[in-house]
Amino acid sequence: MPPPVPPDGIDPAWLPPAAFRPLGSRRTLIRGRGGPLVETVYGEVAEACARFGGSVGWGGGAACDLVLDVAGEAGDDESFTLVRDADGPTTVTASGGRGLLHGLFHLLRLGEGAFRGRWEPEVHRPALPLRMLDHWDNVDVHPVMGQVERGYAGGSIFWVDGRARHEPQRVRAYARLLAACGINAVAVNNVNVHETEARLLTDRIGEVAALAAQFRAYGIRTHLSVTFAAPIVLGGLATADPLDAEVREWWGEATRRVYDVIPDFGGYVVKADSEGQPGPFAYGRSHADGANMLAAALAPHGGTVHWRAFVYDHRQDWRDRSTDRARAAYDHFAPLDGEFAANAVLQVKHGPMDFQVREPVSPVIGALPRTRLAVELQVTQEYTGQQRHVCWLGQMWSEVLRFRLDGETPVGQLADGLVGVSNVGDDPYWTGHPLAQANLYTFGRLAWDPGADPRRVLDEWIALTHPGAPDALVSGLHAVLDGSWRSYEKYTAPLGVGFMVQPGHHYGPSVDGYEYSPWGTYHFADRDGVGVDRTAATGTGYAAQYAKVWADVYESAASCPDELVLFFHHLPYGHLLRGGSTVIQHIYDTHFDGVAEVTAARDTWASLRDLVEPSRHARVAELYEEQLRSAREWRDQVNSYFFRKSGVPDAHGRRIH
Ligand code: GCU
Question: Which residue ranges does the record assign to the Glycosyl hydrolase family 67 catalytic domain (predicted)?
Fold first, then answer.
């Protein structure tokens, strides 16, 4: 049974003390030159040994069970090699501290297995060099969005009431958790940069430096979201034109000052010309001009600009059926391929809309072969139950990362990086819903290895979080998490059509909530049918943004996968899906099934009562009641809505209101 949250309010999550037993009960030697990260590794092993009776020393010679061999400290190399002869010792070799740290956490995952039998030399290196979490944290409490935009885990762990929290211990514990799942970069403030937050770049950079010091100890670089208008709002210049010499000089100087205090600063994250944020369009410049200006300021220091591709018209006229928000990112960015600087990374949401429970993979990801690219996922559950519902997203992310836009290369190989919007806050469990920790862990591990089997990652999380758990707990946890994404999909918006959420806060159903809004997120249901015609033949032409292998599949309702069919097609209720039912019957069936699945998960959780620490069990049990209430509400609103529109009764005569 995992321990209750300790009195300092910091849940050990996937690093409970017991996970260190195999390591801490053995004799470890660290060989090689030390540096800050090697010191961190030493500290980890020493603490484990103090708890479990093992020993740790520097140098060579003495008999031992584990050798941690490091060539030097410096460098970006994150790889390590694991090897073991049948009679030991186990050896982890790395060229630098980063690799050694990852090697240490790998040993934790292996547990006792790391010290048994023979291990052929195994080289581990991350598939993606950029593995980043973006916090949408505000320093001030925003009047509408609160402290953490789309945050469902309390306040920010960095900021409170307009100032830094100064809780280095909590930040250090967080950095440790992130490093243990493979994350190596963090952006500490919201992409929507308001007035107070803009100043983090200049006079408040010391607060960022204090955070960076904690992250650095675990090999994590700190990044900052900046406003494109900074030269105006902070520098007093008349313009933020990216081609203006004074503007460029201002950014150069501001950036130099950042590096004075944070020598390993990662770089900037920019949301420009998006949902009201300023950008290069105001000056008749392209997004490549904007990104390259910041890239030029960062280049001398080795920094990177993450430029977001989430650019669309958020003041659309709902009467206009030719404008399609899904097309926007591709239309804006595909023509710019080859124009971005080498240290600019285009950060693209995984789907063309906005983190819905089901979207096709964004065609932008395959459209810029000469541009560095990061895929952005939403770990925070804005549209997937807001950390009141269990919705483990590993399966969805894995499908995205394995998808072959050109029919050959998986997304995980096209991308240079994976970015997740953080789901963490000052909640004692970090993530509000204790089981939402699994999403954060899975995100990090899939960024390290996008080809990994997500279910194995889930089991890894279960094993680490609950060391020595009885089989019933392991299988119970697996049962309630695996499949929870599909359950969520079943009781919410059907067949890839998306949204149908309450406007503004996005929790709970409102089928027409966005139907007559300016946001470009419509389903077009009428008495005859539902869905968005995005075909090239008769619709918005979005389907033609894909390479032919997929353009052809999506263009025809007969070949389009059911789960996306209303994203690409407007179909009559009687249309027969590939799976054999009609659109309307599918809607009814999945909504009844979804609620049944949540009920079953709730009951499974209840059966684990004696196996889970009581306060943790109670929190999840309570959240399940809310999830079930909400799932029923979704079912009844969606089913009633479509029954009233279509007049078609449920083939099984179930209750529709
Ligand atoms: C979503 C979300 C916003 C966020 C935006 C973004 O639209 O609702 O709160 O700012 O994504 O990714 O920039």
Answer: 123-430
